[in-house]
């Protein structure tokens, strides 16, 4: 028999697992996902001058920028945009905590880094899958794609692909423009591998969750997030 998984709990679990997976992939240093790469590069560049500036701060600052662009394109700011920024803010703070925790784990050799990367990839996929099973506003990355595809009648899968490709190009340009890099940072072989298998991995995680759990609302707040 399936067990009940409240969608609000899925939201919290999704944020935690997504942050943990991202921290593990950063520790592996094989390249971040295309979606996260621009924010990661901002973090790497700014933290060199401002030691207190964290990866999590870069995440919610960059996502706030995306939400402003989205609001400008759609011609207005919606309530769900504010909720999306709250999600980004929460995720950014959890990510900083996970970065510190993962940094305490010993082992920087190649086998350990491969293990960190593979584990991080799967955990990230599980986190995204959990967030897909809640009505609470997602991060700006997902909201950006969802809202644009709905507004202009674009296929959401193709819109996501275009968005990921644009993020990758932006990250590559940023790697070479930022003083002190002059080479690929954030976008590496692991980024390409993630692009190839991430969608499939998220799908497999969703199948597993749906096989074992029924996702139901526990608080009755769905209308507030429409």
Structure classification: mainly alpha
What's the story with the biggest beta sheet? 2 strands, parallel
Radius of gyration: 17 Å
- In total, how many beta strands? 2
Number of separate structural domains: 1
Q: What is the distance, rounded to the nearest whole angstrom, between the alpha carbons of the first and last residues?
A: 31 Å
Order of helices and strands: EHHHHHHHHE
Walk across the major sheet and give the strand order. 1-2
| Overall mean confidence score, pLDDT | 87
Strand content: under 5%
Instruction: Pick out the low-confidence regions.
Output: none
Counted by DSSP, the helix tally is 8
Portion of residues within helices: over 70%
Assembly classification: single chain
Specify the overall morphology.
globular
Offer a concise description of the structure.
The chain is mainly alpha-helical and 226 residues long. 70% of the residues lie in helices and 4% in strands. The chain has helices at residues 7-28, 37-46, 55-74, 79-103, 110-132, 140-152, 156-177, 189-212; strands at residues 3-6, 213-216.
What are its keywords?
single chain; 226 residues; mainly alpha; two-stranded parallel ribbon; 2 strands; 70% helix; globular
Tell me what the structure shows.
With 226 residues, this protein is mostly helical. It has one domain. Helix content is 70%, strand content 4%. It has a two-stranded parallel sheet with strand order 1-2. The longest helix has 25 residues. The relative contact order is 0.22. The mean pLDDT is 87.
